[in-house]
Amino acid sequence: MLRSMFSAISGLRAHQTKMDVTGNNIANVNTVGFKSSATVFQDTLSQVVRAGGQPAADRGGTNPAQIGLGVKLAGITTNWTNGAAQSTGRSTDFMIEGDGFFVVEGAGGQQLFTRAGSFDFDASGKLVTPDGSILQGWVAQNGVVNANGPVEALVVPYGQIVNPTPTTAGSIVGNLPSDVAAGTTFQVGADMYDSQGVLQKVAYNIEKLSDNNWEVSVVHSDGTTLMAATPIAFDAAGNLTTPAAPDYELAPFTPVGYPSWTNTVTMSLAGLTQFGGANTLAAPKPDGYALGSLQSFTLSNDGTITGVYSNGLRQPLGQLAMASFNNPSGLEKAGNSSFRVGDNSGVAMIGLAGQGGRGELSSGALEMSNVDLSEEFTGLIVAQRGFQANSRVITASDEILQDLVNLKR
After folding, report:
1. Where is the Flagellar hook protein FlgE D2 domain positioned along the sequence (predicted)?
2. pTM above 0.70, yes or no
3. How many domains, the chain?
4. In terms of domains, do 106 and 75 share one?
């Protein structure tokens, strides 16, 4: 009778733990990036009442008679399946589509990991979690990200000024109609920047001299010739022969008449053809930019943060670091939806999103909790009934003991 009572007590403890875990799941049903947990029970040691025996020549074998001594908690497992996506429209909300964790630096420089991708800027431009942990990654140097170096705090320097870059290369692409008369001129405009980043509007003029022979010149909007007329030629099939392959570039020129325009410009005619039909000339934007400041940023699937500047320049500012583990269930919860490396998690394998089993990233969305309320309420009923049943065993054992005490009367 005492064995049954003690077994029932262990059942009460186990089901109380199940209630605790279920209650925590339900409490975090709307927690960003939360992963639900489940309890696993196992029986405890059993008392052998009669040992088993092996078969013999004159008798058969016997099975052991064993009485269990209750139940105990085998473990609390974590469900790592992805939660549903919730669109927020905030550029600083990131969601992991697949496995992996964001890498953050907590208080005291402790390296932590989280699935909760709700970040904001602090006063220094760093991306931080709601509790102040700093998002880690690689900061770009002159638009180049070195993902082989150590991770550091990611900073998006809003208002950062970028110096102007003079134009050094331009190009003309498209088709010149081969059936137009000699003397026909086609024009296409482009924006260039001088050495001080001042916008200079120019036009490319292409005039037909004779069959398969043309000349191209560059003229400023004020009428000044920046590049003198230079002959170009095509073969009978309409392919460019002058300037020659493989670069199809005209000789570099330095515009005259503008003291602030000291940089040379190289014109490429690769992609220019001469076939019968319509004029499809176009001038892709030449390189070079005016003075600009950082206005916003975008996040690509591989975690690259690209800055968008007021002058139209787009260049990488940094790249988010992500971590993966051989056994994420071995991570220890550190509070605030964060985890730390555990004894059985394995080391953090930090790298780029979309590589090494790490998921891709989305901006403007958050991963919601993967708690299934219908499953949790069912588990709540199961835990409650298990608790009630074990309490009835204690009550029944008590009544039997009472009957035993009453035998003396």
Report:
1. 184-289
2. yes
3. 3
4. no
